[in-house]
UniProtKB/TrEMBL annotation:
GO BP terms in the entry: glucose metabolic process; pentose-phosphate shunt, oxidative branch
Reactions mediated catalytically: D-glucose 6-phosphate + NADP(+) = 6-phospho-D-glucono-1,5-lactone + NADPH + H(+)
Binding site for NADP(+): 50, 153
Source organism of the structure: Propionispira arboris
Pfam families: G6PD_C, G6PD_N
Residue positions of the active site: 245
Pathway(s): Carbohydrate degradation; pentose phosphate pathway; D-ribulose 5-phosphate from D-glucose 6-phosphate (oxidative stage): step 1/3
Keyword S-adenosyl-L-methionine: no
Name of this chain's protein: Glucose-6-phosphate 1-dehydrogenase
EC number: 1.1.1.49
NCBIfam families associated with the record: zwf (TIGR00871)
Keywords: Carbohydrate metabolism, Glucose metabolism, NADP, Oxidoreductase
Length: 493
């Protein structure tokens, strides 16, 4: 039996089908799943949007998305045609009741096994509740696992709005039907964190405050905000990246071992971490959180305009394009170990990585020989772009005498696994179809993450007398980001 015949038929209703995410991520991912035989034999993708498109023009738009963004490169004619047969389009306003009468009848296909229906909200967040309200007219959806709903980020604007959205969602669906996306969780290297930590016996004894000095989580991007000015200017780096992606990375590093690899066990352990994160008092925010906004600068020898001059951005915007935090996880394992997080746009390099800096050796017998080599051990989990793991150790440099030199022991995905990794969206879409919510955010996880950053958002919104822009495009954020770690006698690694 091939893989696709084992899967239940599915109809994916893609709201916001005319948009950027659909063409750039969702459709290329579905196309690759189609090529890999990971879609069921019977499936349909029904795009919904207001734009006046025909099925033909929608398919053409999706094809361009695949050609440009698929990890496999441009589609081949015959393969594309076979996929395109499954693509359909409904033009409608999102608040049009008759649309939903139609959508909720999509299951009447006459297929031998009735399909599961996945409502995928790839729309701007202000449309989420409009769609949910309309679906709420059909009480038969609630609790029926054949119906699932996928919510893109951002999930709320703060704790209050996230709670309200959860409340509304849970009036229409049950938690088991809800898939809140954080695409970082679908990345191979992010999933590997649990395999690395809990599939190897050697880490657990040193994975704690006794051996680890501090942890750094960096997600720096070279890209700016592209065409997403309207969204980004109301969000900023803290909401866009830290509340979700970086907090999830922190949880994976800090969580306790689950007894079983099940969705709820893992999510429970992550929530425990978030509840253990020390609340930042509003008065302490300046000592624990840094924000920045890029001004004009240079990247790769090209001039880059200031954030405030980007399309759809307020010319006096106080939105941060860089954020750095210092957090503590108050439990037995991590007491006193700072977790430094930073992320930003228009930075000198694209790096997503987690560094665990170990404590120095307790006594150095080589002290009199060479003082500059005393770099403590460091373990770096490289999420992107050079997927792999690096362990920095000290070695004797060949030659007479005893001279130490830092050397890296590393493995690189490309060299070890001779197969292409699926894109995060491919993994997530398969999990949605298989009804496995482990890589998605549960209601309490989202709310716990907002609880951590809400006080910072509040203080930042109150204090608008800023010296923005305070770093140039192409730099590693404002000088205060250096001070955040320097005040603890540390540096960014
Ligand atoms: P778009 O701005 O491209 O919007 C998607 C579609 O929604 C548009 O094509 C448009 O379709 C419709 N739409 C947009 N604005 C309105 C409006 N004011 N009223 C009614 N309809 C509107 O969004 P993206 O595709 O970029 O993002 C979709 C979702 O995915 C968002 O929640 C976003 O935060 C999230 N996301 C996006 C990422 C990205 O890289 N793009 C990355 C991660 C998450 P039409 O006019 O035809 O109805
Ligand atoms: C998205 C953010 O969630 O993640 C974007 O909204 C950001 O601003 C993107 O660019 C980064 O994702 P990745 O997978 O490219 O690291």
């Amino acid at each position: 039996m091939n893989k696709s015949s084992q899967m239940e038929p599915v109809i994916i209703v893609l709201f916001g089908a005319s948009g950027d995410l659909s063409a750039r991520k969702v459709i290329p991912a579905l196309y690759n799943l189609h090529l890999d035989g990971l879609l069921p034999q019977q499936y349909a993708i029904v795009g919904v949007a207001r734009s006046s498109l025909t099925e033909e023009t929608l398919r053409e738009r999706f094809r361009q998305g695949v050609d440009q963004y698929s990890r496999r490169g441009p589609a081949k004619e015959q393969e594309w045609d076979a996929f395109a047969e499954h693509l359909h389009y409904i033009q409608s306003n999102y608040d049009e009741p008759t649309l939903y009468d139609r959508l909720t009848k999509l299951g009447d296909t006459g297929w031998e096994t009735p399909p599961n229906i996945v409502f995928y909200l790839a729309t701007p967040p202000n449309l989420f509740t409009i769609v949910i309200d309309q679906l709420g007219r059909f009480s038969e959806l609630q609790g029926d696992i054949r119906y699932r709903i996928v919510i893109e980020k951002p999930f709320g604007h703060d704790l209050h709005s996230a709670k309200a959205l959860n409340q509304r969602l849970l009036q229409v669906f049950e938690e088991k039907q809800i898939y809140r996306i954080d695409h970082y969780l679908g990345k191979e290297t992010v999933q590997n964190i649990l395999a690395f930590r809990f599939g190897n016996a050697m880490w657990e004894p040193v994975w704690n405050r006794n051996f680890i000095d501090h942890v750094q989580i960096t997600v720096s991007e070279k890209i700016g905000i592209g065409r997403r000015g309207q969204y980004y200017d109301s969000a900023g780096a803290l909401r866009d990246m830290i509340q979700n992606h970086l907090m999830q990375l922190l949880c994976l590093i800090a969580m306790e071992a689950p007894t079983e690899f099940t969705a709820d066990q893992i999510r429970n352990k992550k929530v425990d971490v978030m509840h253990a994160i020390r609340a930042i008092n509003k008065a302490d925010v300046p000592a624990f959180a840094v924000r920045g906004q890029y001004g004009q600068g240079w990247m790769d020898g090209q001039p880059v305009q200031a954030y405030r001059c980007e399309k759809d951005v307020d010319i006096n915007s106080n939105t941060e394009t860089f954020a750095a935090l210092k957090l503590f996880v108050d439990n037995w394992r991590w007491q006193g170990v700072p977790f430094y997080l930073r992320t930003g746009k228009c930075m000198p390099g694209r790096v997503s990585e987690i560094s665990l800096q170990f404590r120095p050796v307790p006594h150095h017998p080589f002290a009199h020989l060479n003082t500059q080599v005393f770099q403590p051990n460091r373990l770096v989990l490289q999420i992107e772009p050079n997927e792999g793991v690096v362990l920095r150790t000290q070695a004797k440099e060949p030659g007479m005498g005893m001279k130490l030199k830092p050397v890296d022991m590393s493995y690189c995905y490309q060299d070890v696994f001779h197969q292409a990794s699926p894109d995060a969206y491919e993994t997530l879409l398969v999990d949605i179809m298989r009804n496995d919510p482990g890589l998605f955010m549960r209601a309490d996880q989202v709310e716990a993450a907002w609880s951590v950053i809400d006080p910072i958002l509040e203080v930042w919104s109150e204090n608008t007398e800023l010296n923005f822009p305070n770093y140039q495009a192409g730099q590693w954020g404002p000088p205060e980001a250096e001070s955040l770690v320097a005040q603890d006698r540390r540096t960014w690694l």
